[in-house]
Amino acid sequence: MEFQRRHSNQVTGNMGLYYVCYRLSRMGWNVMPTSRNARGIDILIYNQDASQTHTIQVKALSKRNAVGLGTKREGVLGDFFIICRNFASDNPECFVLKPAEVRKLAHSSGNGSKTQYWLEPKQYEAFKFKEKWEQIGRGAAVDF
After folding, report:
1. Cα 52 from Cα 39, distance rounded (Å)
2. I want to staple 56 with a disulfide (CB 3.0 to 4.6 A). Which of 9, 14, 22, 43 is the partner?
3. Handedness of CA 17, 78, 101, 74 (dihedral sign)
């Protein structure tokens, strides 16, 4: 069933957050979303014996759009940066990047105190990022 209506940014953000939580849980991670609309990371994950943790930022889009990164490249935090898009359909797709990759690919617009950084679709949708969940690894041996 296709979603025919446009969702609010908040609903799209929630869909992206919980979709990423679902995918990570299937990989055996214990998943804890952080407070919504707080600056910084969106998800904390840890493996079954809590010997390994990762932090994740999630950006959710209803369609193929650029991702706003704010006024500083250094504002990209966490161990992984996951862009999920196409939540207006039943076929969302995700791109898994490391923050250093996001900072390297980001471009700016404006100048001075009005500078904004963006990640264009042609940069994040590269094959090396598309559905690359395996770079996060597994939280436990699972077989779904």
Report:
1. 23
2. 43
3. positive
